[in-house]
Design goal:
Number of domains: 1
Distance between the termini: 36 Å
Mean pLDDT: 90
Strand order of the largest sheet: 1-3-2
Shape: globular
Largest sheet: 3 strands, antiparallel
Number of strands: 3
Strand content: 25-35%
Low-confidence stretches: none
Number of helices: 3
Helix content: 40-55%
């Protein structure tokens, strides 16, 4: 479902990805999300956090 949202243009700042029950290997998802503009941040419990680079950079520049 995540792929369909991203391919459909949904661009959330954060993605909390649960890989335990997902058939796509985490490494493949990291690569795919990276190619779409998200960077891997860290593991949180069983989940993995990704942040949208362009949005986080824009928000940082607004604060300065």
């Amino acid at each position: 479902m995540l792929r369909e949202w991203i391919e459909g243009g949904y661009r959330p700042r954060w993605i909390l990805y649960e890989s335990m029950h997902n058939p796509t290997p985490l490494g493949a998802m990291k690569t795919w999300l990276g190619s779409k503009g998200w960077r891997y941040v860290r593991k949180i419990g069983w989940n993995h956090a990704f942040e949208l680079e362009e949005l986080s950079a824009a928000l940082r520049s607004e604060g300065t």
